[in-house]
Amino acid sequence: MGNHKSAIRRRNVDNILLAAEQVFAEKGYGGTSMGDIAELVGLPRSNLHYYFSTKDDLYRAVLLGLLEVWKQDALCFELYDDPRVVLSSYIRAKMNHSRTRAHGSKVWADEIIHGAPMLGATLDDSLYSWAKMKEAKIRQWVEDKRILAVEPSALLYMIWASTQHYADFSHQVGVLNDHRPLSDLQFERAVQTVTSVILRGIGLES
Question: Taking the model in full, what pTM does it have?
Answer without folding.
Answer: 0.91
